[in-house]
Write a structure and sequence with these properties.
This protein is α/β, with parallel strands linked by helices and 367 residues long. It is built from 9 helices and 17 strands.
Length: 367
């Protein structure tokens, strides 16, 4: 609040006094909240980290009690003069909406009625404490107004992060030229094959995504044998504890606007696919939304990035699913731990391309 006093304090600090230790991978230092930083102290930190002072750049800091905090943004008018920065704890907010659906078991003589839970909507992100009320409202309205129907159960989970989020880069994005669902299946096969997935594994994945009895999470399929290895085939594996920084969100939105696809569904799908691809044991991912009004799926991989596939199904169809393709010798427990429990946050955005042919997508990498 008083930059001049803060500047004097920083300039008069004892000689030989250094800034707190910096952790690996992402700018992190130790501090006691509440902390306020003026331009001088911010620039000292960045010189110490050997990083350029960039507009809308954020640091993560760790308090002595191991809580994770985020320092908020540079001044928009001048990249070298940040405003006073306030530290706030980071929270993971998750929403899942569902409703009870009655399903008739035809295999029994009594035609007994079994109660099944149908997934309606889900959302997740990593946010500052001051954003909690706004995000809860947004997630609740999304669940109540979903095209799949009105849920009878909405579960909101809020968790303060005790572990520093791992900083990752988003996958490159492209949209493949596709005119029909038949062509989409062919493109999926070719793209996954080029990513190193066997024909048997692709057939297993397509059976999962073509089913109207959708799973709550993702299936785990071994890339060579095609064997499913998720512990619970009803629940599946749910990639969780993921988010995107404010600065990266602005850049991503700007890039997506250029191609006319800046909508929450695309932004959230890129965030999720980028975390999945960051898992060392995941080779590729296939996703077809079970939302009857959304007909664009995607195939994502470390090799080819996030590839949107339009017209992957007919509008009105409720089928869909998500499949993670793992290395044949993958440690399932380790992969599951990363996907479900390790917090990650996107801090850098890869290039976003327009519509391309399959050959253009593959040739760009192979060259």
């Amino acid at each position: 609040d008083r930059p001049n006093e803060c500047c004097r304090n920083m300039s008069n600090r004892p000689r030989g006094k250094t800034l707190p230790p910096v952790f690996m991978r992402y700018p992190v230092f130790t501090a006691r909240p509440p902390v306020r930083l003026c331009p001088v102290s911010y620039n000292l930190i960045y010189r110490r980290l050997q990083l350029p002072a960039m507009k809308n750049t954020a640091l993560f800091i760790r308090s002595e009690s191991n809580r994770i905090f985020r320092i908020i943004t540079f001044c928009a008018s001048c990249v070298n003069h940040p405003v006073c920065c306030i530290i706030s704890p980071m929270w993971n907010i998750r929403m899942r909406a569902s409703k009870k659906a009655k399903r008739r078991r035809t295999k029994t003589l009594l035609n007994e009625i079994a109660s099944a839970e149908m997934h309606i909507s889900g959302a997740e992100g990593i946010y500052e404490e001051k954003e909690i009320a706004k995000i809860i409202r947004e997630y609740t309205l999304r669940a109540l107004k979903h095209p799949k129907g009105k849920p009878d159960r909405i579960v909101l989970s809020l968790e303060e992060l005790k572990q520093r989020p791992r900083a990752i880069e988003s996958l490159p994005l492209a949209t493949i030229k596709c005119r029909s669902s038949v062509e989409a299946v062919s493109l999926i096969r070719e793209l996954l094959t080029a990513s190193g997935i066997s024909g048997k594994a692709i057939r297993t994945a397509l059976r999962i995504t073509d089913s109207a009895d959708t799973m709550r999470g993702a299936a785990l399929v071994l890339a060579r044998s095609g064997r499913r290895v998720e512990p619970d085939r009803q629940r599946g594996i749910r990639a969780s504890r993921l988010g995107i920084s404010r600065a990266a969100q602005k850049i991503l939105s700007r890039e997506l606007q250029r191609h006319g696809i800046d909508i929450p569904t695309v932004r959230e799908a890129i965030t999720l696919a980028s975390k999945v691809a960051a898992c060392r044991q995941v080779i590729a991912e296939l996703c077809i939304s079970d939302d009857p009004g959304y007909t664009t799926g995607y195939a994502a991989s470390k090799k080819y990035g996030y590839v949107r596939i339009p017209h992957v199904k007919t509008r009105g169809e409720k089928k869909g699913g998500r499949v993670f393709f793992l290395e044949e010798d993958a440690e399932i427990g380790s992969a599951t731990e990363f996907l479900e429990r390790t917090p990650v946050i996107i801090h850098r955005i890869s290039p976003c391309f327009g519509t391309r042919t399959l050959d253009e997508i593959i040739d760009r990498i192979d060259k």
